[in-house]
Design a protein that fits this description.
With 237 residues, the chain is α/β, with parallel strands linked by helices. The chain contains eleven helices and nine strands.
């Protein structure tokens, strides 16, 4: 059984307001209770791994065990529609990327390949906004006594997002399965190489993880691995 007394320290008390949820009519400010209380009230699991290994697939299986999943990609897509500071910066620095007051993700992806200072600043703005959404998410789920939260966040370990996690799960797939998935997503080699360059190595990610899930075999096998992890936490979700 996992020892909950070995959890990583979470950030201290913060108050957060969600611009994304505000846009859909939800106006609420919540406070996250101090880390001294939080440490034993709920568990936050962060997913890491290479691109195309099935992290979102694994996250969905955690949902079946009562977990709430923070999907950073979905949050970013929403921010591209409603966050005025992000949209304004993109409009000024990436010509043609804003249409109908929203960021066109297809056009934006072309600027990623340059990976210059303008892109790095843009990425910093986005990460800060996602972090605020994450804090809101945690506070909201804590308010309803959710026992298990899962963070599906790209660059989890490369950014400060991992500091919110008690456990890190490394998700991987064999090279053949991973290549097939990447091919289905039409990710070209240049973009894939750049993504790899800005991420920690697979070996480093493994070292920082508490559990490993292999998505190469079957859906049933993935489910059994997720269940084993959840059972070890003894959270009674």
């Amino acid at each position: 059984m996992y020892d909950k007394h070995q959890v990583r320290e979470k950030p201290d008390v913060v108050k957060v307001t969600s611009p994304v949820l505000k846009s859909s009519g939800e106006r609420e400010t919540l406070a996250i209770v101090s880390k001294e209380v939080n440490a034993f009230c709920y568990m936050i699991i962060g997913l890491t791994g290479g691109i195309g290994v099935g992290k979102s697939f694994v996250a969905n299986y955690f949902k079946e065990f009562g977990a709430a999943v923070f999907d950073a990609d979905s949050v970013v897509h929403q921010l591209y529609k409603v966050d005025k500071s992000i949209i304004s910066y993109a409009e000024k620095n990436f010509p043609g990327v804003v249409a109908n007051d929203e960021i066109d993700r297809t056009v934006l992806s072309k600027y990623f390949l340059a990976y210059d200072e303008s892109w790095k600043q843009f990425q910093s703005l986005v990460h800060s906004a996602v972090l605020r959404e994450l804090e809101f998410f945690i506070a909201k789920e804590k308010k309803i006594d959710r026992k298990l939260l899962v963070l599906d966040v790209p660059l989890l370990l490369e950014t400060k997002f991992y500091l919110y996690c008690d456990l890190i799960v490394f998700v991987h797939a064999d090279s053949v399965v991973q290549a097939q998935r990447l091919n289905e997503r039409n990710i070209d080699k240049e973009k894939l190489n750049l993504i790899s360059d800005v991420q920690l190595s697979i070996e480093e990610k493994k070292k920082m993880s508490d559990f490993i899930i292999d998505t190469s075999v079957s859906k049933e096998y993935v489910f059994s691995q997720v269940k084993k992890i959840v059972d070890s936490l003894n959270l009674n979700t």
